[in-house]
Amino acid sequence: MDDPLFNIVLWQPQIPQNTGNIGRTAMATHCRLHVIHPIAFDMSEKACRRAGLDYWEHVDCREHKSWDSYLQSEKPTRLWLFTTKSDRPHWGARFEQGDHLLFGQEQGGISKEIHEWVATTFGIEHRISFPMVAKESARSLNLATAVACGVYEGLRQVSLATGRMPPAYDQ
């Protein structure tokens, strides 16, 4: 894929249906999907066919054996960590085409070490969240929903900044 809109980064995802849904979002928005292992399910071609992911061959998906291998191969120069452990709303970020949008696993978020790495490397302001009501039962959004919210806010910002949709969206 030439110059993706964004790089969607999933750190150790646990639920295959979420990853499948996120893959569809990545394909539909001209984003590249990065899946960082270990993961809790099989992503082989056979498993994707069996799951009915007939679009998966069109998803630009890169798998990485670890966080370190992701950093080594991708060398992100701009990265945003979506987390419930931030008071900074996502609309406070200034997204640019090519940014890496990092999301933690469904049942545990992301490690403290990666939180610290983001703050040290890009600044604490690169840890952002989705505003939610102050109820314990509303602790987080579904991962696939969160990714879609982040990608489409980024697309809105990129389109406003340039005055047009990115070239991949031209019909």
Short précis:
The chain is an alpha/beta fold. The protein is 34% helix and 14% strand. The chain has a single domain (7-161), classed as Alpha/beta knot (3-Layer(aba) Sandwich).
What labels describe this entry?
5 helices, globular, Alpha/beta knot, six-stranded parallel β-sheet, alpha/beta, 171 residues, 14% strand
What order do the helices and strands come in, and which of them pair?
Blueprint: E1 7-11, H1 16-28, E2 32-36, H2 45-50, E3 61-64, H3 67-74, E4 79-82, E5 100-103, H4 112-122, E6 127-128, H5 143-162
Parallel strand pairs: 1-2, 1-5, 2-3, 4-5, 4-6
Helix pairs in contact: 1-5
Describe the overall structure:
The structure is a single chain. This protein is α/β, with parallel strands linked by helices and 171 residues long. The chain has a single domain (7-161), classed as 3-Layer(aba) Sandwich (Alpha/beta knot). Helices cover 34% and strands 14% of the residues. It has five helices and six strands; from the N terminus they run βαβαβαββαβα. The protein has helices at residues 16-28, 45-50, 67-74, 112-122, 143-162, and strands spanning 7-11, 32-36, 61-64, 79-82, 100-103, 127-128. It has a six-stranded parallel β-sheet with strand order 3-2-1-5-4-6. β1, α1 and β2 (32-36) form a beta-alpha-beta unit. α1 runs parallel beside α5 (143-162). The protein is globular and about 40 Å long. The mean pLDDT is 90.
